[in-house]
Amino acid sequence: MSDNPHLLVVDDDARLRSLLQRYLAENGFRVTAAADAQEARAALNVLAFDLLVLDVMMPGETGLELVESLRQQGRDVPVLMLTARGDPDDRVAGFEHGADDYLAKPFDPRELAFRIRTILKRAMPPPLPTTQAGPVQLGQLWFDPDRSELRGPGGATRLTGGETALLAALAGRPGEVLSREFIAEALGTPEAGERAVDVQVTRLRRKIEPDPREPRFLHTIRHKGYVLRPGP
Question: For labelling, which of 18, 44, 48, 75 has a CA lying 20 to 30 Å from the CA of 160?
Answer without folding.
Answer: 18
